[in-house]
């Protein structure tokens, strides 16, 4: 298991989610929006790449929509027993939440 980042980490996705992505099909016709589950999935995949074992999602609140191709970033900051997450498009908060991690010693 990886130790929690000390000063936080940032994942930048400058290309965003491509307009051709299957997850956007029908979500929503005329004004596509990236599904919340996709944003959460991006964060979980990133944390796994960093070596973290996510044990659970405590909460996630989505407050703004993200369109296809819009750049965004995910920030992870250590918190009690896990990581606090924030999804941002520039200065606009898209979502925030937290996850619990497996102990670093297994």
UniProtKB/TrEMBL annotation:
Pfam families: ApeI-like
Domain ApeI dehydratase-like, chain residue ranges per copy: 16-76
Name of this chain's protein: ApeI dehydratase-like domain-containing protein
Taxonomic source organism: Paralimibaculum aggregatum
């Amino acid at each position: 298991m990886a130790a929690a980042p000390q000063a936080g980490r940032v994942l930048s996705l400058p290309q965003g989610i491509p307009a051709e992505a299957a997850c956007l099909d029908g979500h929503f016709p005329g004004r596509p929006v990236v599904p919340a589950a996709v944003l959460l999935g991006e964060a979980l995949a990133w944390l796994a790449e960093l070596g973290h074992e996510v044990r659970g999602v405590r909460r996630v609140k989505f407050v703004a929509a993200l369109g296809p191709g819009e750049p965004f970033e995910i920030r992870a900051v250590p918190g009690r027993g896990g990581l606090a997450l924030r999804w941002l498009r520039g200065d606009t908060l898209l979502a925030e939440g937290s996850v619990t991690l497996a102990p670093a010693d297994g």
